[in-house]
Specification:
178 residues; alpha/beta; five-stranded mixed β-barrel; 6 helices; 37% strand; globular; disordered N terminus
């Protein structure tokens, strides 16, 4: 009996040791490659202040989709996501809503994405919706009237039921503890 209790205890300890450590983990291979080289502490405000110095910087931003525009060409569908930037702590907090965004950010930016056919606009509309959280990896390529347009190398959609928006004061307290 004692052997079984020790074995069960070891299994429990092993399980605890292999649980998620809270670090954000990219989902696709494309996102993993972009995540590994992206700068995560450059904000849209930084880019607005010094666009030329940062235009070749691969960065990662988070936000909430405000609007999506589609343009169909012969071979592709061009997608423009209008995103309300939010601060993101790059942490998987676990639970029902593992991702947390701040309630404020650095304004709106636009992320461009090209999808090859036979994908249809109808299918894309079922996968990406206003209100979803989006992680964008890419380089700023243009700025019009203060709105930065990002040439996107990878992106990740996170549905509304998988993230929550936190009060700024709460998030700042959490970030300072880590």
């Amino acid at each position: 009996m004692m052997k079984y209790m020790i074995f069960a205890g070891l299994l429990i300890l092993t399980g605890c040791a292999t649980m998620e450590d809270g670090v954000y983990r990219p989902k696709s291979s494309k996102e993993k490659a972009a995540f590994s080289k992206a700068v995560k502490d450059v904000s849209p405000a930084d880019v607005r202040q010094n666009f030329r110095a940062l235009e070749s910087t691969e960065m990662a931003w988070a936000g909430v989709i405000k609007d999506i525009q589609f343009k169909e060409t012969e071979r592709t569908i061009q997608v423009a996501f209008q995103i309300d930037h939010r601060s993101f702590d790059w942490t998987d907090h676990g639970g029902d809503k593992p991702y947390r965004l701040s309630s404020t950010g650095d304004g709106v930016f636009v992320a461009g994405w090209i999808v090859r056919k036979p994908t249809t606009i109808g299918k894309l509309k079922t996968e990406a919706k206003a209100g979803y959280m989006m992680l964008v990896y890419g380089k700023p390529y243009q700025m019009k009237e203060g709105v930065i347009q990002v040439s996107t190398s990878a992106l990740r959609l996170i549905k509304t039921n998988d993230y929550e928006v936190m009060d700024v004061a709460v998030e700042e307290d959490e970030l300072s503890e880590e």
